[in-house]
Design goal:
Elements (H helix, E strand, L loop, with lengths): L1 E3 H8 L3 H9 L7 E2 L5 E4 H15 L4 H10 L3 H35 L5 H4 L9 H8 L1 H13 L2 H24 L6 H15 L14 H13 L1 H4 L5 H18 L1
Antiparallel strand pairs: 1-3, 2-3
Helix pairs in contact: 2-9, 3-5, 7-8, 9-10, 9-13, 10-13, 11-13
Length: about 250
Amino acid sequence: MDWSIQDIARLSGTTSRTLRHYDDVGLLKPSRVGANGYRYYDEEALTRLQRILLLRELGLGLPAIADVLAGQTRHADALLTHLHWLQREKERLDRQIGAVESTITKLEGGEQLMAEDMFDGFDHTQYKEEVEERWGRDAYAKSDSWWRSLTPQQKSEWQEKQKSLAADWSRAADAGIDPASDEAQTLAQRQFEWLRSIPGTPGGGVAGPTKEYFTGLGELYVADARFGANYGGQHGAEFVRDAMAVYAARNL
């Protein structure tokens, strides 16, 4: 049994263009190509795609994913490694959910809040020293104060917005589009607006980030793997940097 490229795109939540790009770079070949030129994928290809998407979630770029797939050929062994990572991530998210649910219950019941229970699974201060060193104490203080002022629902909505933007960047990078294209520049505009919404962003507020900050942040995504992982690793980070540079040159 096999499935068409349209079926696989729909079932996996990706796009036909991304799947064709995976084919072009040798990452995921279709099991057969029909007389009409359509790509079809069998169970072996689906399992490989599942591994690719899981590795993308871990922040790996396409070249790194190719290396991993070449080095660990047994799908079952590889998926077991992914399963362990997903279980750890689920445990962390379960702790966060439990902390928020506990806070809501206590607030509605008029109970005393326990600070040590409220932030289980969270660590928004892990980059405090680095932010202060790069952009000053005032930048960190403003962003920290803003974050603490948000309700649990607002924090969740903001995090989902950031994740959605990062995922859209990754998909665009995987599809191999031009950083100067309208699609990439729409993402760069969203990146600009997202940064402008964060108090403490250098040059933020009504005007938004400065040209120097915006382009410098793009360079940081490439230079620092921790930030680049949000966009799928080196390849994705370079795509984001290039698109941000084009946006800055045109608009800032």
